[in-house]
Amino acid sequence: MIRKVEHIGIAVSDIHAANAVFAALLGQAPYKEETVESEHVLTSFFRVGETKIELLMATDPQSAIGKFLEKNREGIHHIAFDVDDIEAELRRLESLGFSLIHREAKPGADGKKIAFLHPKRTAGVLVELCQDR
Ligand code: ZN
What we know:
This protein is α+β, with helices and mostly antiparallel strands. The protein has a single domain, classed as 2,3-Dihydroxybiphenyl 1,2-Dioxygenase, domain 1 (Roll). 23% of the residues lie in helices and 41% in strands. It contains three helices and eight strands; from the N terminus they run E-H-E-E-E-H-E-H-E-E-E. It has helices at 15-26, 64-71, 86-95; strands at residues 2-11, 32-36, 41-48, 51-58, 75-83, 106-107, 112-117, 127-132. It has an eight-stranded mixed sheet. It starts with a strand and ends with a strand. The structure holds zinc ion. Residues 7, 9, 54, 78, 80, 128 line the site of zinc ion (ZN).
């Protein structure tokens, strides 16, 4: 079951500059910075009520975020939904015809298991499912 918007992911070219902007906007410093080696990204997280803002900077231009920033400006990259059972949600969404980028959940930032849906079936929006590990 999808329970809430867990976070909104924003691709940035300079995470230190973006941290300063979002810290001023939100009136708080990020509560976490974390490198996800498997994705070649440096992330930072801010809490906004029950949801979060995730800033993502590529540590390798060949990474997904690096390629996104080659084609697009900085901006919203994905929306992430909190789910109670990520494997069950992947099977449910696959049976409804959604296109899965990841057929199985994998480790993500902020202590989550994650998987992405292809934006071609979700109105151009890259959707992440995440579940607490
Ligand atoms: Zn995310």
